[in-house]
Amino acid sequence: MSKFVPVIWPKVILFGDSITQFSFQANGWGAEIANKLARKCDVVNRGLSGYNSRWARIVLPRLISSQSSADDSTAAVTVFFGANDCALEDKNPQQHVPVSEYLENLKAISRLLTSVGVSPDKVIFITPPPLHEAAWEKECILKGCPLNRLNSAAGQYAQACVHAAAQCGSDVLDLWTLMQKDGQDFSVYLSDGLHLSDEGNQFVAQHLWDLLESRVVHLPVILPYWGDIDARSPETSLLCNS
């Protein structure tokens, strides 16, 4: 049998909390990105529900290594934390991370990615979305706890995320600002006041693609189009190294 080179699929890694973990559900923003990149790139979901940037910083070395990032040609990484960090300290101390530490954690995550070969220009930070307090308070009451997040606090963490991205030399998708632009009713983007609705997922997918497309546009379709396969000698088409 003739020798051939294994097919290497580039990766886009989605690293974040529950808003990333659930993004592969029907109509999710991660699923939409994966669909756009079919046959070009593997979109890998590394969403960790409930996690904050402190825990993300600790666990990241277990999720990505220099060998995996180099061999799999990581095309981009999204870093999407803050919705749990901004939990009020007196109401939810387990998830709360001070905003100053949150900023430093994001910068540390960027440094870790750089150390394994993912340069800052391949990283896209995403701020937490705005919080609809009335809707989220209903969810909190159902769980037997008081309102544990505020939109104003989410805004402080969004601003810190924007600053971290600028200091790291990376792009940022500022959901907190964009979803409230011109005083629009941002509640349509949220299913429960915190997590994304179908409209919110579409919003993220659209705006993220605007930033992501330039990083993946050069990627070719992997393996030949079926109509181009030599039916008499398919190995010639399918096992070529180009």
Count of spatially separate domains: 1
Oligomer: single chain
Quick check: average pLDDT?
A: 94
By CATH, the topology is Rossmann fold
Structural class, by secondary structure, is alpha/beta
GO molecular function, one term: hydrolase activity, acting on ester bonds
InterPro entries: GDSL, Iah1-like, SGNH_hydro_sf
Protein name: Isoamyl acetate-hydrolyzing esterase 1 homolog
Function: Probable lipase.
Topology (elements, then pairings):
Elements: E1 11-16, H1 18-21, H2 29-36, E2 42-47, H3 53-63, H4 66-71, E3 74-80, H5 99-115, E4 123-126, H6 133-142, H7 151-168, E5 171-173, H8 175-178, H9 198-216, H10 234-238
Parallel strand pairs: 1-2, 1-3, 3-4, 4-5
Written description of the protein model:
- Probable lipase.
- Keywords: Hydrolase.
- It comes from Oryzias melastigma (Marine medaka).
- This protein is an alpha/beta fold and 242 residues long.
- It has a single domain, classed as 3-Layer(aba) Sandwich (Rossmann fold), CATH 3.40.50.
- It is built from 10 helices and 5 strands; from the N terminus they run βααβααβαβααβααα.
- A 5-stranded parallel β-sheet has the order 2-1-3-4-5, sandwiched between helices.
- The longest helix is centred in the C-terminal third of the chain and has 19 residues.
